[in-house]
Hints:
The chain has helices spanning 115-126, 169-181, 187-195, 206-211, 236-248, 278-294, 317-325, 351-368, and strands spanning 4-6, 15-20, 23-27, 41-45, 52-56, 74-76, 83-84, 86-90, 93-98, 104-108, 132-138, 144-150, 155-161, 196-201, 252-259, 266-268, 328-335. It is of the alpha+beta class.
Amino acid sequence: xxISVNAAFDGGNIRVVAIEGDRLDLEIxxxxxxxxxxxxxxxVAGAKGRALTLRILNAGGSAYPFxxxxxxARMSEDRVAxxxxxxxxxxxxxxxxxxxxxxxxxxxxxxxYTMEQHEALVARIARAPGVIHRELxxxxxGRAIDCLTVGEGPKPVxxxxxxxxxxxxxxxxxxGALERLTDPADPIARTLRExxxxxxxxxxxxxxxxxxxxxxxxxGVNLNREWHEPSLERSPEVLCVRxxxxxxxxxxxxxxxxxxxxxxxxxxxxxxIERWSNxxxxxxxxxxxxxxxxxxxxxxxxxxxxxxxxxxxxxMSTNQVAxxxxxxxxxxxxxxxxxxxxxxxxxxxxxxRSKGLAHSCLEVLADYIDEL
Length: 372
């Protein structure tokens, strides 16, 4: 049986350059109207028993080539379990090797969370008792920006994810958060619902998700550089979410992402905004300290450089939300690699661990919300 490669499905991304025996030479396709690329997701048919070598020839020109060293590609034969496979990076080429047991195998940058999965999640959570679903607006391709509101407490909390659609671990985190918040028997969830009203946007970039983009929407726009001045023409996804925030106010906000290079979970904060004070900033730092003490799947040593005083980029959501509302706001970054302080050699950082980290974040918030 001959080998064939296909990415013509929800979230798929790859281009075939050549197939020679058991070696597949491939390229990642750029985001539409953008130079960004790094996300890949495709299937191989006719793979049974073959010792495959898959080479992504243009990996060196990707958005974050410094993320490839130490990275391991994910493979699944059932699209449920995504295991790490033998992967190397040299001379601008990402190479991974495997020997599938069945005819079909799927490969991805990280375990995918497709638009079909998103629709199923929204349908399931919207039916839970006490949940209110709103369509905040539409994307450039006409897809819904879904918001699920949970709780009746006085403190408005916003959780939102996938401004960068290739960061699929972010929606796995959202699934974990929504399942926990809507559990009627969970005492922590009950406490949070009494004290807070959660506004949860599981996917801010449905067009990029469906198109197999790494970082941009249908117009090639990076949504996390639009929060200072979103528009219907470029970034209606941000505009409708920010407008909704203006209507509710924000006390606590978490923008959920994935990071290509750093092999750990960490927060980025709002240092450098004009309304920064040490007392205000310490509320953000304290949440990170408590989360690191609460779970081995979080740490505070590794992360991004902090903005200098007055130099915060207000086009980014965390800075804009903190400056606009005085909220304790943060960007959660999860790795495409593994959380090296607590590694898993078989699965690396995974959907299950992403969901578990969401549970930990909510547990810490339950103890901390009275102080905000």
